[in-house]
Amino acid sequence: MIVAAFYTIGTPYEQEAEELRKTLDRFGLQYDIRALPHPGSWAKANLLNAGVIKGVRDSHPGEDVLYLDADARVMQDPRPFFDELRQGPYDVGVYYLPDSPHAPLDCREELCSGTTWWNTTETATGLLDRWIEANAAPEADKAILQDLLATGHARVARLYPEMCWIDTISEMHFGKREPIIFHTQASRRHRRAVNRCLPG
Fold it and tell me: b or e along 103-115 (b: 16 or more beta carbons within 10 Å of the residue's beta carbon)?
């Protein structure tokens, strides 16, 4: 398994990625963290993950990919959990936050794309291709992956809350637990700074 992540050059996410790297090294995890030019806004940067995942899969053929946002911190070795999914077999693993105010209008749960897992199947590859294509549209937003998965074409594993534990939010839903992957909600701290950064 390869952990994929990225940061945008010249933004505070460079340091976030370095902190993530430290937690990956602690567990001896293989990773491919990519530095990308900043596209000009936080919203546009938020759509880069699909291309990063595809690029990492192409660079590491035969390896399943665990994508993490740069603000993630690995608190426990995730390999046993995702090894189980790979034997499922599933095409993709995602986490849905229940009762989210940001959920689509016809749904009470929101797909949180900060932790996603991608198997080596052709279906997963096709899903990534469709996600990348949809992200290129002017109206693209964070909900695209959730919409694509709702078509039912992929075998989807629902990740445990501990695999995408969100600071200050997850505990309100589930009480105290021991997270496997912890997200620090860096967007709350950095969104304004990232929006001020311009490409180049």
Answer: beeeeeebbbbbb
User: Between the CA of residue 11 and those of 7, 59, 66, 159, what are the distances in Å?
Assistant: 8, 25, 23, 30
- Domains observed in the chain: 2-196 (3.90.550.10)
159: left (phi over 0), alpha (psi -120 to 50) or beta: beta
d(CA 1, CA 174): 28
Q: Determine the straight-line distance between the first and last CA of the chain, rounded to whole angstroms.
A: 33
* The model's pTM: 0.89
* Alpha-carbon span 28 to 135, nearest angstrom: 33
Can you tell me whether residue 78 is helix, strand or coil?
Answer: coil
160 DSSP 8-state letter: P
**Each residue's pLDDT tens digit, 122-140:** 999 999 999 999 998 877 7
Angle between helices 186-196 and 13-26 (to 10 degrees): 140
Q: Phi and psi of 113, rounded to 5°?
A: -85, 10
